[in-house]
Amino acid sequence: MIEGNIDINVKMRFIGYYMSDDQFMRTEVVFPEKAEKLAELLRTTFDTILGNRYVDDEMRTVFNGNTVFILKGENGWLYGYYPKYNVARLTNVRYIKPDVTPIPNRYKCWFYPGERFHLYKPVEPSSGIE
Length: 130
Fold this sequence. Notes:
With 130 residues, the chain is α+β, with helices and mostly antiparallel strands. The longest helix has 19 residues, at 32-50. It is built from 2 helices and 5 strands; from the N terminus they run βααββββ. It has a 5-stranded antiparallel beta sheet with strand order 4-3-2-1-5.
């Protein structure tokens, strides 16, 4: 049974993504108004990611590509986001481990939808030789 009060104002983090040329995601049917609001909030957060100079080239390609992102809320709920068409899902979000590409650790920070995504300059490993 699906809860009637799914929270979209909860801390989330990226956990993985599906990416292919023919990738798609169906729109939310159970909570369409909440999904539309979440999509608006995630679009705002995505804009801060795409504008961040510390996003590496590989992930910039992923964020700009035909990609469906899987996010996990601190409440344990899975959320889906398809930035290409600004679509969010709150129900029936599937995380099929063999098919999902995990998000690199640098991009797993917690954030509230609609707020800035904090990504910092990567720390260069030291060689240990001085």
